[in-house]
Amino acid sequence: MAPPHCEDDPGPSHRDHPPPPLIIPEIQFPFAGPPPRSDSEQLRAHALAWAQRYGLIGRRGAHRLSTTALLDLGLALCGRAPTHRAEILVCWYLWALTLDDRIDDGPWAENGALEGFITSVQALTESSGAAPSGQGRRFEDPMLAVLVDDLWPRTRSWGDDRWRARLVRHLMQHLRAQATLVHVRETDTALTLADYLPLRRDSFGALFFFDLIDGAETLDPYEPPTDAHRWNGMREHAADIIAWTNDIHSIAKDVVCGERFNLVSVLAACAGMDWPAAIESAHQMINTAVAQFTALAAEPAGHPPSAATDPDRLRQVVRAAGDWHRSVSRYLLHAADSAARNDQPVDLKLIPPTLKSRQFEIDPYPLYEQLRTTLPIAYDEPTDVWLVSRHVDVKAALTHPGASNNNYSWQIGPLLGHTIVTMDGCEHAQHRALLSPAFRGKALAALEASIIAVTTELLAHMHGRPQVDLIADFTAALPVRVMAHALGLPAQTCAEVERLKRWCAIGFAYMGNYRQDPALLTGGLSNRDSFYDFIQPHIDARRAEPTDDLISQLLAARIDGQPLSETFVRAYCAILMTAGSETSHGALANLIVNLLSEPGVKDAVIADPELMDNALAETLRRNPPLQLVLREAREPLQLPSGTIPAGATMACLIGSANRDPDHFSDPDTFDLSRSEQATSHFAFGAGRHFCLGSMLARLEITLGARLLLQTFPNVRWAPGFKPIERGFLNRCPDRLEVVL
Question: Burial of 473 by CB count in 10 Å (0-12 exposed, 13-18 middle, 19+ buried)?
């Protein structure tokens, strides 16, 4: 059938009008699949080890890929390639899969970043000659580094110049189509069906992989070139079949995630179809493409048949892709039944929003309401975590004796090793008892003097300036300088402070890398090494001549009569510096927003400075900088709203629990007089792992805000400025433009 054409705006997004339950059809192909390979497990193990070695995936990603069918399509692409080339082909598949997730999951590809990535890929693959060994070290992005150091040098010699030019052309078409879709998404531009179809063919990348398969099997279907038109036609039909099959299977995920660029969505918008009709139309387009492929394959070839031009090579790939899309877990998103199958209704109300959705970065609170109301305990397949959203459940999860911190073994273990963050039980209690005195009693009083001194100095630098950004000049600098002073690290000059801020921000992003972005995986490790090189002379100096700072206390500490290892000392310096800076900065920024934006709050606090404690408590409840913490279930956990299976990772959604109307009256409203419930938020966690530095954080934030208002009682937003919360790991504005 001919696809419908649409010239007009495709109308309102399906996000405004959620479709009824969808039925995903059983898509059958009259093709045989590829024969099984005896070396499949070897190929899988090689690809996982390779991806971890080059920083494309971490422990979490390796476990997921080894326990699911996500790599199966890559194995099926190998056809009859010898093992040494099949290994490289599966690595290419994993590279492309990682890039696809990276583009889809959050903000990485936006604001021109993907275009810059594509420019680098083009320069690497179109340059003459093999890349010099080690050249990739100039790339911070591991996906570029592995391309220049490994993938391209090992692949470029698989064929002649014509094959190589075709391969690069299809790779660039693949990447540019993805960049176009990102731009369309950023600008909220409407796509017609005529626009979408060629973009979809290229964005899936099947033509690029057909070229790779040719090279891996040492076959050239374009030699002699007399049959090129027929072979190109078969490849294009095969690529369309694979891409459109993907769209049908991913329609439920795309609707829930607000992704408009899906064949079914475009058909529904352009042709004015309802959802069942759009799905059926997409299915018919696939059947038509199968018939067109079959007709071309049956035409007599212009030269004697050969293995290179055997249509079965393409048939096997199409069948393998269809089987993969039908069975792979990333498209089976029912929260109540992750084993939902084709030809059964898919109720979108029972599919949770995924933490990988960009909407969590923009405004998570409507998503929280949806979860609390409909799916209080829900499995989020793309991140492999269970979402816990109600106050009663988050409290139970954080305080349950069967909940463990073992999740930090993949969150932060590769960075800092085994520390208090990953510990449980008696070991955790010992290390917590060791560190707690540094944030209480006399030690806290000494830190109070440091807070006052640093705040006074920062505020003094603002005098006489017509406009100030309180993020750059105040909220980000204050906690960094206070914690650096506590540890005994230099943080007086702007350069010293900026360097510490950068280390803290990267370290914190690594810890919260639930999207498992490769740049954070590798950047976190190099960032740690840089920080360790910086602090080592200070550790050596305190060992030789102790003072009263935290580094000296760590060196003097004993557990079971034994001193802490050097590894522990360095890791605790990194943890204290990072945890003591990032969330305190976010909380102080959010407090300032409420002081200046909420009617009457600033005046009330100036009149009664004791109310600053209430203002902070209400800010931490309504606008917590840290929106979630993870835990792992040692055993099946019976929470009030449902059960978490043993071994599962839980995302305790602090930002949701803190706005649960079953626990807080009028929860979206900032209420300075909120009293009895003011401290029952989870901004500092709960249970055995309640934030060790909570007393310091409260003191730092309230003192800083009080002194700000005392020094500049007329502080107000700059003309035309409106603060906007951003982010999910540390949610706060990135600018606070004020006049003093």
Answer: middle
